[in-house]
Amino acid sequence: MARAPLTLYDCCPITDGAAAVIVACEEKAKELTDRPLVYIRGGAQAVLHSVSANWPGEHLADWAHLRVAAEKAYQQAKVGPNDIDVAETHDCFSISEVIEVEELGFCKKGEGGFFVEEGNTDLGGKVPINTDGGLLSCGHPFGATGLRQGMEMMKQLQGRAIHQVEGAEIALQHNLSGCNVEHTIVIYGREPVA
Question: C-alpha angle with apex 115: 48 to 70, nearest 5 degrees?
């Protein structure tokens, strides 16, 4: 795979936007909607450094802090990378998704580019990612981005997404903030954790 610099279309646009969500207990949610419920099965957040100081990995493509968050979220949700049917990742730059598929355990370290290039993250692939276009298509209104990602995962699990992943039962959302300082993972399911 040839190396290429990031260009304009490899970088998400910073946009205006807002989002809101209602999180409710199962009983209240059943009162509020007749749609299938989506459960938060687990989540985790990891911060291992500050700004660009004390980077936790061996190099800038080594996101140890994302691995920590993913491992904790998988453990809490009682699932692993192979159980994820659909995901939203923080693709602020096109290279971000390549690194994220590795750190989330969807493929081995160093194989992310090939994994994406082979269509594994496309609709119908091993783990469809950013089925609504992600940040690169939707833009990035900072505080609203995470909720937009969560809404796409909810729609996927309810079977009403525009680019629907058939039979999706487990969804993963990944967001990062700061200068790649903080990684947050939320795992959703059509059923709660047993």
Answer: 30
